[in-house]
Amino acid sequence: MNFRTFFILMLFCAIILPSHAASLNDKFIAHMQNEVDSSPENAIVLLQQELTSTEHSSETLTMLKIVLAQAYLDIGEFSKAQFASQQALDESLIHNNDEITAEVHFSLAALAYNQGNYLASLENYRLAHASFSKIGNQRMSAHSLMAIASSYTYLGELEQSLIENEKALKIMTALGDTYGKSQVYNVIGATYYYLANYKKAIEYYHYALNEAKKIGENDEQALIQANISEAYAQIDDLEKAIVHIKHALTLSQESERVQSQLFNLIVLGKLEAKQGEFNKAKQHFSFAKSIATDIQAEDSVIEVLLELAKISHNDTQKLTNIFSALEKAKRLDLSAFIRDAYQQLYQVYLKQENYKDAYHYFAQYHATNSDLLQQDNQKSLARLNKSLTLLKARNEIEQLKQNELISQAKNAERVNVQRLTIFIVVVITIIIITSYRRFILKRQASLLTEQVHQRTIHILKLAEMGKEITAAIEINKVASIVFEQLEQLFGSSCFRIAVLDNDSNSLHFTRCDSDGVSAYTLPLTLEGNSDNSHSVINSVLTGKESFNLLANKVEVEAILPLVLKDNIIGCIGVEKRLDNNSNDQFFSEYDLSILRSIASYVSVAVMNAMTLSNVKSVAYTDFLTQLPNRRALTESYYSLTPLNDRSGQSLCIAIADIDHFKAFNELHGHDGGDYVLREFSALLKSSIRQQDVVARWGGEEFVFILPNTDIHGAVTLLNSIREKLVAKQFTFEDKSLSITATFGVSQYHAELTLEEILNQADQALYQGKLSGRNTVKYFEDISML
């Protein structure tokens, strides 16, 4: 359970589970309610005994059934809770007691809410609100409004949720209920959080905190402080986020709320890790792990183990934590944690250059992530179905209103049957118009039902397609999968994937149609293209258009971008032929929404393919200079030295350091420094021999491996490079620059390690710096003379 879910559950309990007996001045009912709160199982036995007693009035027996329903609800016996609540509702109608009726509807609503039937909970909470308002119970009326808002939230109607909570806030303010105001402010803040309006969320959270401080409610303050921290984290204000989560932790410790302490410690550790304070983060994660172990919160133990692995600099400890978390997650079948563990294993083995294990865990991560995406799509489908059901319910209400109008018109016709003929004509006209409207509404309802059916099929196909696309690694396979589905959905005649290559300023196309898959490459701007396709594609690639259409008399093609982490990496094109006999010529907004979902899946698949092909190249190349990096040079050294030992030939190691580079950076800025590093690297690369290796070691230092070269030959070669550097004129921002470098050389000896040889070369380099720079020095070991 994440912190946000914990917050909602705590808030839900505060809103919809107030003591029903508090609104009824009945000490016996209040006593039974207290029994339910302390031990629902024992309370059920007592309640069943009391229900057989003849000493209670019929209204008291009805109230006891409401309390019994609450007890069954607390232990998860939903069918029994439903039966008891329905009995109470039937009896309340006989008693004609609005107070009991309100309590019954509130109980039925809570039952429906716990079962995830938010439409039913919404209906019953509205009935409860109406009844509480009728009898003047404003406090329960406000609680009903908050529960209505909560139902709207789970139905995705966040704006309506805000409206209902604002109504509840007005009532709490009028009642002077400080604790109630704190709760409503907190819920409104959470709603703005879900709407991604984090500044507004922080504003309302502070309102809630001020109210909670007035009554000294530590638990409420801790919850609100944690919510404020999370909102600040979303806008990257980590300092304030840490301050508030520390307040939340202190308050939960004072209240001895172990579960709250656990969540606050985990959040604090994550924020400190994000800020780079790894030692503090490690301390808090370790404390959290201890608490989670004590209370047997294994999901929290898994989360802490994965967080500790992220900040660990020891690969052995990192792998120990990850595998421990993975074993627990598999045992508990927690897919999200399993996916995260696979991802971390892939990254660790990739860093270690263990490509076999890296690829294995990447594949495991990929498969698990695809399953989670499918589950998310199924949840989205469920939410869509609930929203459509809500829409259907609203249409039915409108239909009832229309029927009421018809009934009123007919009654008026019967009452005024003897009136003037002109009035009868008017009434008949109204009836005809109303009947026509009913016909139109019925037809619209039929069309809507068909549309819902078709879109449900599309969503299911889309979910299946997404799983196949994200599981595919080859772009050709992705193109085939998508084309097969698009041919069924839209009658598509062709599908194209275009991947942007910034280095060559070109697009790599993969095209799929009924003839198969083909590939080709075109320049990014297709000058002179008569159908102006280059401007259409470029408008999408540059982000000027979220989609575009490329059409002629025969066919139309929708062009949509491939976006990954706010970066456009290419586009897709979907063609369909135009039919002169059809009104459906172009792509509808609904069609484009499906294509955008497909584009998001294709983006992930394309990036996976590009990542696998580029990962080794990136690992061995210095980004700025495009020379080999330290890792590449080290591997070259250990592959060359055995050959050198067998051949008995000489080998030298040299270090070059650009003179006064720090002062140059301060004078010309880092852009100037980067320019010099690139130009110097290009000169080195063009000056060395085919068998030589030069790499950027770090900063302004470069290391050479010079096979088949003795110390004097190395000095000669490096002096020629030094002289070329002196003679070359560099120009940066219209300024002429002169650059020199100092070189240190050491002879390879089999008994010395690479670090020792580099140390000798570095000593020679240091002597060159002391002697005035712009020179080549070689190491002389006096003990060998």
Notes on the protein architecture:
A hairpin with a 2-residue loop joins strand 5 and strand 6. With 785 residues, the chain is an alpha+beta fold. It is built from 27 helices and 13 strands. It is 69% helix and 11% strand. The strands form three sheets. A six-stranded antiparallel beta sheet has the order 3-2-1-6-5-4, sandwiched between helices. Strands 8-9-7-12-13 form a five-stranded mixed beta sheet. A two-stranded antiparallel ribbon has the order 10-11. The radius of gyration is 37 Å and the shape is elongated. Helix 14 packs antiparallel against helix 15.
Primary descriptors:
single chain; 785 residues; alpha+beta; 6-stranded antiparallel β-sheet; 5-stranded mixed β-sheet; 13 strands; elongated; disordered C terminus
